[in-house]
Design a protein that fits this description.
The structure is a single chain. By secondary structure, the chain is of the alpha+beta class. Helices cover 42% and strands 19% of the residues. The chain contains three helices and five strands; from the N terminus they run H-E-E-E-H-E-H-E. The termini are far apart.
């Protein structure tokens, strides 16, 4: 009787753990929408450029949750600022997530932090001004 209980407990643990592993595979197969925004700052200028939250076309996350080809997106903003706004020497960073609400919180927190510093001039780049393109 004791061995039957142990065998039943082990079978139950195996069934429960295998059910969770099947769920992870199904979630990974889904194509997730990736949202992103970028910030450009310079030590030589007081203007801080912030893009709106955008959907990245054909963007995928790797197995570790990082955006593939993520280094290309900040360079797109840097090139836009250099050639369109004639603003060289800007450092650009990208924030991304599959949850838009998380990015909205992060963006509002960043904007409030930058507004506290009186020397910064925040400039928001709308989707008509700047939009990320698919990296090739």
């Amino acid at each position: 009787m004791k061995y039957i209980r142990i065998l039943a407990a082990l079978t139950l643990v195996f069934v429960v753990s295998s059910a969770f592993s099947f769920q992870k595979k199904d979630k990974q197969k889904k194509e997730e929408v990736v949202y992103a925004f970028a910030v450009a700052t310079s030590f030589k200028d007081t203007v801080v450029y912030i893009t709106e939250i955008q959907v990245l076309d054909s963007a995928r996350l790797d197995k570790d949750g990082f955006l593939e080809k993520r280094t290309i997106y900040p360079y797109q903003l840097k090139n836009y600022l250099e050639f369109t706004k004639h603003a060289p020497d800007y450092t650009c960073t990208l924030s991304f997530s599959t949850k838009k609400e998380k990015l909205v919180k992060e963006l509002t927190k960043l904007k409030s932090k930058l507004k506290k510093e009186k020397t910064n001039v925040l400039t928001t780049l709308s989707l008509t001004d700047f939009k990320f393109t698919k990296p090739e």
